[in-house]
Amino acid sequence: MKRNLVVWLVAIAGLAALPFLGMPVYLLHIAVQILLWGAVYTAWALMGRFGMMSLGHGGFLGIGAYVPALLWNYYGITPWIGIPLGVALAVLVAVAIGFPCFHLRVVGHYFALVTLALSEVTERGIVAARDITGGSLGLTPNTVSGTSLFALQFPDKRHFFVIALVVWLVGLWVWHMIDGSMTRLSMTASVEQDAAAAVGINVPREKLKILLVSAALTSLGGSMLGQYLMYVNPGTLSGVMVTLQMLFAAVVGGMYTALGPTMGSALTIILMESLRILFGTRFIGAANTIYGILLIVFTIFMPVGIWGFVVRCWERRAAAQRARATGATSAQGAGASAR
Fold first, then answer.
1. Coil vs helix vs strand at 56
2. Is the pTM of this model over 0.85?
3. Residue 272 CB: number of other CB atoms within 10 A?
4. How many angstroms separate the CA atoms of 253 and 238, rounded?
5. Strand, helix or coil at 211?
6. Are residues 111 and 192 in the same domain?
7. CB-based contact 41:259 (threshold 8 Å)
8. Per-residue pLDDT tens over the stretch 89-110
9. Structural domain count of the chain
10. Is 273 within a domain?
11. Domain range for residue 336?
């Protein structure tokens, strides 16, 4: 346990030091996006790993992105207040969706359809309120000159790298806390609702807890993406397509491991940037096409994802080494007894 903690601390210190060691600005920009989207994908994976197929996280992301931007532009309210308000609104929406669904046992593809409607309503609502939100053209938060802690605006990307690292670590910490708690056991059991209820597990409450945590983290990630990009758009930070992007990244990276969604984030960001550089505007929709093909391939041949496959291979290797060591020890003991 202590060894793992030391490894994590060293890794975090190394990541935090990267932008201050002459890292190119473009690579720093990519790294910030990987961390922020990694936190968002981790939030979605909290739902997916327990069998809850949510297609509504694009709505939570959009709420988190737009609330602080609108409050800042129209009322001058600092994002330090706007971001918690966006998270609170996302949680309230999650309660409004999750409470009746879980108590009425609206599960499986029916729950997915309900959450799909949430994503669609959020995106359409943003577009319809174009006089306020900018509609499909998006919205640019009012900028201030230079560095402003009050406005949470930093021309130097190194500041946002540190913020993105903190948000990402919060997501991993929540994952770790859930994975090591009784909630994980209850949620794993609640996949079979009748059996879980028979042993005293309050299935609706456990599912609602996971939904609320996931919605809050997704909203937080959306807020920080809006602040970093200084541009919010319903097509990129809300809606069904964004949710499908989360699903793809979590599945391909590995939704059953803590670092799997971040692996998926790195893959999606690098893929999008590579296609943009290679094709420009000549192959519109290339990323979505490749996403679909890879999702089919990984779902069939590698359902545990890339990082999950690596972890599984590592565990098998460690088990084989322990078995060989145990066998050698037993052979030595037998030889000593024979003598």
1. coil
2. yes
3. 17
4. 22
5. helix
6. yes
7. no
8. 999 999 999 999 988 888 778 8
9. 2
10. no
11. 309-339
